[in-house]
Design a protein that fits this description.
With 356 residues, this protein is α+β, with helices and mostly antiparallel strands. The chain folds into three domains: 198 residues, no CATH class; 39 residues, no CATH class; 90 residues, no CATH class. Helix content is 45%, strand content 13%. The chain has twelve helices and twelve strands. 34% of the residues are buried.
Length: 356
C-alpha cells in the first residue's frame, strides 16, 4: 500500500455518512446528481425529483419503467466504479487491494449491505406482496410478475449513503476525485434512480437505531424510519411486526410458549431473560456438577434452548458471587461439557486449574 492511503480516516468518514439521518441539502445534492450525468458523458436530467423514502421513490421508478423510461445506472455509476477499481487494483496489485478493502470497505460492508437488504425486502413486500399459497394459479402468477417488476426497478437504484464501503476504499486509495459527483450524492442522500430524462432521489432516514454489532435494533419504536411513515421494526437485527415490541413488557412464560413463530419466541426469551424464564416456568435441571447446572427449555416446533448456569468463583466488591448463563448446543448432556464447549475444547480436555 502506498503512503497516500489513509484507511482509518476514510473508513471513519464513510461510516459516519452511512449512518447519517435527516434531510439533504437538496440544492447541493441536485447539483451533484447533474454532475454525475455530465461525468458519464450524458445530458443532464430534465428534472431531479425528491421523495421522502426509498419506498416512494421505488414506486415512482416502477411507474417510469412502465412508461418505457431507460435507466442510465450503468453509465452513471457502474462504469466509473469499475474504472476506479481497475486503477486501484492495477496500482496496488491483488494483495494490496485485499489489504485496502479489509481496512476500509470490508469493515462497513456487512452493516450497509444488511441494511440495504432489509430496505429492499420491505419495499418489495410493500409494492408487490406475495400471493396466498392457496390462491388460484392466475393470482399467484400475477403476484410473481409484480414482484419481478419491482425487483427490476430496485436494480436501477444507486445506493447513495449505503455505497459507503466502496467509497471508503476509493477515498483511501486517492481515487475519490474521479468519483466526486457520486461521492457528493452519497454524502447527502439515500437511494437514487438515474433515468435518461429524470433522476429520482430518496431522502435519508429520519431515525436509525442499531446495536453494538451494527444490526437494526430498537425496543420502543421503529429501528429505521423515514419522513413519510415508511419504517422497519427490528430486535437485534431480526424483523418484527410493528406491534410486537410493545407487548414485550407484559410477557409471561405461558405467552412465550404459546407464540407460534419460533423466531419471535426467541426474541421474547431474550427480552424476558432465560434465567427468569427457567425460574418461573418450573423447569427442571438436566444435570449438575462442580462446574454448574445444565438446563433445557423445550419449545414447540423449535430446537430446545440449553443453558449452563455457572457461578463466578471471584467475588464481587460487595462479597456476592455473580451468576452467568451460557447458551450451549442442544446436544449437550452435562454441565462440564457445556462449559468446555464455550472454551472450544472437549469435556475430557477441560481441566482448569482455577475457574473464574
Amino acid at each position: 500500500m502506498t503512503q497516500t492511503l489513509q484507511p482509518e480516516a476514510a473508513t471513519a468518514r464513510w461510516r459516519s455518512a452511512a449512518a447519517a439521518t435527516g434531510p439533504a441539502d437538496r440544492a447541493a445534492a441536485g447539483q451533484a446528481v447533474r454532475a454525475a450525468y455530465r461525468a458519464a458523458g450524458l445530458p443532464e436530467p430534465d428534472r431531479v425529483l425528491w421523495y421522502d423514502s426509498p419506498l416512494a421513490a421505488a414506486r415512482a421508478a416502477l411507474a417510469l419503467r412502465a412508461e418505457g423510461a431507460q435507466s442510465v445506472r450503468e453509465a452513471v455509476r457502474t462504469a466509473p466504479w469499475e474504472q476506479a477499481r481497475a486503477r486501484v487494483h492495477g496500482r496496488l496489485g491483488a494483495p494490496g487491494w485485499a489489504e485496502l478493502w479489509a481496512l476500509t470497505g470490508g469493515e462497513l460492508w456487512t452493516q450497509t449491505q444488511a441494511l440495504a437488504g432489509r430496505v429492499r425486502g420491505a419495499v418489495l413486500d410493500a409494492l408487490a406482496p406475495e400471493a396466498d399459497p392457496d390462491a388460484d394459479t392466475a393470482v399467484r402468477d400475477a403476484a410473481r410478475a409484480a414482484r419481478s417488476d419491482v425487483r427490476l426497478a430496485l436494480l436501477d437504484a444507486v445506493l447513495g449513503q449505503q455505497d459507503a464501503p466502496w467509497l471508503a476504499a476509493f477515498d483511501a486509495a486517492g481515487e475519490l476525485d474521479t468519483l466526486a459527483p457520486l461521492a457528493a450524492v452519497a454524502g447527502q442522500t439515500g437511494w437514487w434512480w438515474p433515468y435518461e430524462q429524470v433522476a429520482l432521489v430518496a431522502e435519508r432516514p429520519t431515525v436509525l437505531h442499531r446495536d453494538e454489532a451494527g444490526r437494526l435494533d430498537r425496543a420502543d419504536g421503529p429501528a429505521l424510519a423515514f419522513a413519510d411513515g415508511f419504517e422497519l421494526h427490528a430486535w437485534r437485527g431480526m424483523p418484527v411486526p410493528a406491534d410486537f415490541l410493545g407487548g414485550l413488557g407484559g410477557l409471561t412464560p405461558e405467552r412465550i410458549r404459546d407464540e407460534e413463530n419460533a423466531e419471535l419466541r426467541r426474541v421474547m426469551l431474550e427480552h424476558y431473560g432465560y434465567d427468569r424464564y427457567l425460574a418461573e416456568s418450573g423447569a427442571e435441571p438436566l444435570h449438575r456438577d462442580e462446574t454448574g447446572v445444565l438446563w433445557r427449555i423445550v419449545l414447540p416446533d423449535d430446537e430446545p434452548v440449553v443453558m449452563v448456569e455457572v457461578v463466578n468463583s471471584t467475588a464481587e466488591p460487595d462479597g456476592s458471587f455473580r451468576t452467568y448463563w451460557l447458551r450451549v448446543p442442544p446436544s449437550t448432556r452435562t454441565a462440564r461439557a457445556g462449559v468446555a464447549w464455550t472454551f472450544g475444547v472437549t469435556e475430557e480436555e477441560y481441566r482448569p486449574q482455577r475457574e473464574t
